[in-house]
Amino acid sequence: MAHYKLTINGRGYEADVEPDTPLLWVLRDSLGLVGTKFGCGIAQCGACTVHLNGKAIKACSFPVSGVGSNKVTTIEGLSENGDHPVQQAWKEVDVAQCGYCQTGQIMTATALLSQYPHPTNEQIESAMQGNICRCGSYHKIREAVVLASTKMK
Amino acid sequence: MTAYTSNRRDFLKKLAVTTGGGLLLGFNMLDANAGTMSVLGETTLDAAGSELRFNAYLAISPDNVITIFSPNPELGQNIKTSFPMIVAEELDADWTAVKVLQAPLDKRFDRQLTGGSGAIPHSWERLRKAGAAARRMLMEAAAKRWQCDVSTLRTEKGKVISTTGQSLNYGDLATDASTLTAPTDVKLKDIRDFKLIGTAVANVEADNIYSGKPLFGIDFYREGMVYAVIQRAPAFGTRIKSVDDTAARAVSGVLDVVTFKTNVAIVGTSTWQVMKARKLLKVEYEIDGSNLLENSSDHDRRFKEMLDSPEAVVRRKDGDVTTAFSQAAKVITREYQCPFLSHSPMEPMNFFAHVRPDGVELIGPTQTPDLARNEVAKLLNVSADSITVDITRLGGGFGRRLKADYVLEAAELSSLIRKPVKVIWSREDDMTGGSYRPAVRYRFSAALDGAGNLIGYKLRGVGINTANSTREDNFPSGAVDHLLIDSVEYKSPITVGAWRAPITNFLAFAEQSFLDEVATASGKDPIRFRLELLEKAKKSPVGAIKYDIDRMMGVIKLAQEKSGWGRKDVSQGFSVYFSHRSYVAQVADVAMEQNRPVIRKIHAAIDCGVVVNVAGANQQVRGGVVDGLGHALFGNLTFKDGAAEQKNFNNYRLIRFREVPEVDVHFVNNGIDPTGLGEPALPPTGGAVANAIFKATGQRLYNQPFNVQEPMKSVRLGEKI
C-alpha cells in the first residue's frame, strides 16, 4: 500500500492503494468517479479514456504510481454542468445508444480537438479509431466531433 | 415496489469513511459530480409521497410533474425514451414536463423484458391506453369542477381546456382525478393526430450519459458491499480438481476465497485487489464425465457429417422435392458456415446481490429481471416474492443479458459469504464464459427448370446446441412448389444463447447470398427474381405463408428506388429479410479501389410499422447495419481444447470508427402498429455486402467472417472497407 496525492479535475485527492493499481480503479473504486468506464482492461477499447495533462490516455493500463504531479481530467471534470462544447455536440447530435462507451469517446474527441480545433477527416479517424462502440453509433460520433469542432473556441 | 432511498447518501458516506481505498479532500462533497445520483434514479417510493399514481405507468404530482415509469430494461434501444413518448402522446402531456423513471421489476407490468424486438409491439396498446385513461380521468375531474359535460372539453400540452376558454393544468386536476375510477374502455387517438410520436425526441438520459453519472450496474455502490471476481472453468466440459488459494488469500484486501460449483470466487475490498489476487490462484481442472474438449476443427468435421445425416428433423415439406430435383435442368448446391460469436457488450457482466435472512436484493443490468428473480428463488429455495430486482441501465446486451447465469452466481456467492457483493467479470471472463452465438452450417439446394424458374428448394441446417437452426417459413417458402427444410442439432459442452437476431443473424446472409447466386444462374436481376417469386406466392401460395407479401414487396421497391438500383458507377448487392415481425431490404454499394472492394454505402429500407421516435429509430437501423457488417467481416471466436482462443479485443476484432461506411435509412411508415426494430436491420447486411462484393470481384463469400477469405483477406485494422 502506498499513499498518493492526485490532482484530478482541479481538485486534490488522496488514495492509499497498491502502486500497480490502474488509475481506472482508483477513480472508480476509491474516489467514486465512475464516469470513466471499464471495458477491456488492456487499452483496446477506449472506454476508460481520461486526460493526463490534456492528452488522452487509457486509464485501465496506466498505474496510479505513474500519475505523479500530472493533472488528470475525467469526464466529471470536463465541465461544471456538462456543457463543454463536446458534450453539447454529443447532446445535439443525440449520439448515444447504450451510452457506456460515450464518456470515453467524448474524452478522446476533446483531446483531439484541443490539439487540432479543426481536424481533418484523417485526424478524426486516427483519433477515434481506438474507441469501440459496440452499439455502432459511429456515424453520430463523427457528426458530433465535426459539430464540436465548430463550437470550440 | 422496492424501497430505495437514493444511493447518494450511501455514496457520500463511502467517500467519507473509505480508508483502505481513498479519501476525498479539499472540497464540499455535495458539489462533486460523482455520487450525486443513484444508478437507480429517484425511487418510486420517494415519488409516492408527492405524486399520484394513475396506473402502473403514470403518476402526476399536484405541482404538475408528469412521471412516466418505463418498465423494460434500457440497453441502448432507446426504450426509456420511446415508451414514455407513447404514454405522453395519448395523455397529451407537455413533453418538457415529463420525467422518466426506470421501474423496478413489478408484477403490474407484463413482459418486463428486453429481447426479441418485442417491447414496443407488445406494449403499444397498453401504453396508449394508460395515457388515454389518465387523460380521460383528468377531463372528468375538470368537467366536475366546471360543472360541464366532459365531451365539450379538449386537452392540449398538459392542460384541459373548456369551450369557454377556461384551462387547468394536469397537476391542478391530479388530486381529484386520481380518486376517479379508471375507465376500462377509452378511445385512442387517430394516428394522424399524433404530435409526439413520429418526431425526433432526444434521449431522456442524455445529460447523465455525457457527464458520466453513475447509471450502469457496474457503477452501483452500497456501503458495506464487497467486490468479487470469479474464476470459472477455462474450458467447456471441465470441472475443478483441486484449488490452492494460499497465495491469493495473502493479497492485501482479499477477504475470502470461496469455491462453489465450477467457480472460485475471490472476495475483497476493491476490484483491482481481487483481480490481482485471482492471478495467484492455482486451480487444477479435469474433464467432467464423458465430455470432449472440442476444437473448431472438430466442429467443421462434424458439420460436414451431419449435413448428410439421415436423422434430420423435418421443419417444412411442400410438394415432392425428390421428383423436382430429378427433373431439374440445373441444380445449384452451396454451403455456408459461421463461427461462434461473443456478445461482448461494452459493460462487462456484473451484478449486485444481497441475500439476507428476510429477503434477497438484486441490482444490476439484466434484460430479463423476471427470469433472474425466478431462477434465484429456485437456487436459494426462497419465495420469489421475497426477492426484489432493480434494473440499472445496461451497457449493451445483444442477448447476453437474457441469461441469468451471472445473477445466479452473485446471489449464490452472497448467500455463501453472507454479505452484499458486486460480482464483476473481466473482459476475458466475458469472452471465454460462454453463452455464444452458436456456429452453424447450412446447405442450400435449388432446382431450376429450363426457363430458369425455381421449382425446388432444399435447406439443411446444422447448429450447435440449436434444435432448429432454420426458419422454415421464411421466404422463399410459400413461393416454391417443392420444398424441404430440415435441421440437425449438434450437442456440445460449449454454451450458447440468443445473440441479437438469433438464427437469422447468419441465416439471412446464407439465404440471401444463395438466392443471389440462383438469380444469377437463372439469368435474372436479383430484385426481379425475388419480386417474381413473391408474385407467385401471392397468386398461388404453396402451403402456409407466414410473412406479409405486400410489406416485403414494399421494402424491396423502396430500397430499389432509394439506392438507384442498376447504377453503373458502383457494384450493388441486394438483400431482403423478414425478421421479428419487421421487413428490411438493403442495397450495398461497393467500388474497387486499388484492386480491393470498398464498401461505399449501405441503403436500408425498413417497414416496422409506425416509427415512434424518428431519432432513435434511425439510430437503431444504422447501429444494426454496423453490427451486422462488423460481425460478418470480422467476428470470429474459435476453440482449442474446449476453450475460446480469443479472449479480448486485441484478437477478437470488432468494427471500429474508420471501417464504417455511410448508411442511408428509409422508413416505409405505413401506419400499421409498430412491429419492432431492435434486431431487424442486422440480418440483411451480410448478404447485401457479399452480393455487392461478388458483383465487383466475381468472387462469392460463403463463410463468415469475410476477412479470412479472398477477396476480403487484405482488410487490415483501421482501413476503409
Give a nutshell description of this structure:
The complex is a heterodimer of chains A (153) and B (721). Chain A has 153 residues and is of the alpha+beta class.
Summary keywords:
heterodimer; A: 153 residues; alpha+beta; Ubiquitin-like (UB roll); DNA polymerase, domain 1; 2 domains; 5-stranded mixed β-sheet; 5 helices; globular; B: 721 residues; Aldehyde Oxidoreductase, domain 4; 3 domains; 7-stranded mixed β-sheet; 24% strand; disordered N terminus
Describe the structure.
- The complex is a heterodimer of chains A (153) and B (721).
- Chain A has 153 residues and is of the alpha+beta class.
- Chain A has five helices and five strands, in the order ββαβββαααα.
- Chain A has two domains: 2-77, Ubiquitin-like (UB roll); 85-151, DNA polymerase, domain 1 (Orthogonal Bundle), CATH 1.10.150.120.
- Chain A is 35% helix and 16% strand.
- Chain A has a five-stranded mixed β-sheet with strand order 2-1-5-3-4, with helices on both faces.
- Chain B has 18 helices and 28 strands.
- The longest helix of chain B is centred in the first third of the chain and has 28 residues, at 119-146.
- The model of chain B is unreliable at 1-37 and 43-49 (pLDDT under 50).
- Chains A and B meet through strand 2, helix 1, helix 2, helix 3 and helix 5 of A and helix 1, strand 1, helix 6, helix 8 and helix 17 of B.
